[in-house]
Amino acid sequence: MPNTPQTLAEAHRLRDFFAAQGAHVITADVLQPADTLLDLYGEDIRARAYLTSDPLRGEMVLRPDFTVPVVQMHMQTHADPARYAYAGKVFRKQENDETRANEYMQAGYEVFDGQNPAAADAEVFAVIADALAGLPVRAATGDIGILTAAVHGLRTSDARKAALLRHIWRPGRFKSLLKRFAGGKVPAARTALLAADDPFANAGPDIGLRSRAEVATRIAALRADAQEPPISGDEVLLIDAILDLRETMPNVLSHLRDIAVDMPAISAAVARMDARVAALAARGVDVENLDFEGSYGRSSLEYYDGFVFGFYATARPDLPPVATGGRYDALTARLGEGRAVPAVGGVIRPDLALGIK
């Protein structure tokens, strides 16, 4: 029931519930400039969003979510702290799953507050949980910040770290890159290309969007990378250990403290998680039974960089998450032209919430 009157009424109820927590109700245009999303996510966004061309406004996109326009709105106001609530339709392509709606309602709650990030994380999670009170849902949590800290701490080149960070949200690509950087097999075609004295010999005419100079720069980068020593097997095992974590929050914290002994780069991220667990407990959340997954949140839109969470229908594992959310500090820095504001938010799909009552 993605667009029924009942769904609309539930979306407005949720929006008003969020407003009662002190959030300012806002709206966002359905048509958004596409250049912002293209800058953030590259051409990959074309596979997930509906783009169109306007003769006056240029390339536009049907709003795929609210977070980007809300951040843009907030960064213009310079308000701090601030809380926002909203409800409206979002539009996303579902090319590989005909059962999932490509147009549906969202109601959301966003907090911009750098005074106590752990408390803000706990606030958003608890508010979303309260809005879903009485529904048969289970919560899952994760922390992208721990994995990014681990990548930053690897004893390897900045170029390799950048490549891994770029593909954190593409688990398959991340795994294959990590394997190759650890000394895994390089494709024969690439080996032959890098060994050639003149890689453009017999290449034929230039085709595609990249110039010959850009291709040459890429080949030079690949040659430089081929000279790098492999990432150590011990470091790969530590990354794998983080990704394989799947227990309750307190048990995961214990494991992460052990991992931090051998990988000190994650110590600050683990301390932030420790503070978050305490803040969640202070909010009345049963952290002793709250699930944490080391790889959770890696297939979402690519702006989450810290705490991530989702709520799922316990009796309907076939459904998308009823609610999702997380921290996106880095997004505010990019949209704020370097002026970062700690931010965390969550959204609920009212159609799914109604469907599992």
Automatic annotation (TrEMBL):
GO biological process assignments: histidyl-tRNA aminoacylation
Family annotation (Pfam families): tRNA-synt_His (PF13393)
Keyword tRNA-binding: no
Binding site for L-histidine: 65-67, 92, 106, 110, 298, 303-304
Keyword Glycosyltransferase: yes
Record keywords, A-Z: Glycosyltransferase, Transferase
Domain Class II Histidinyl-tRNA synthetase (HisRS)-like catalytic core: 12-170, 220-346
Superkingdom, taxonomy of origin: Bacteria
InterPro entries according to UniProt: aa-tRNA-synth_II/BPL/LPL, HisRS-like_core, HisRS/HisZ
GO molecular function: glycosyltransferase activity; histidine-tRNA ligase activity
GO annotation, cellular component aspect: cytoplasm
Xref: NCBIfam families: PRK12295.1-5 (NF008952)
Protein name as it appears in the record: ATP phosphoribosyltransferase regulatory subunit
Organism: Yoonia tamlensis
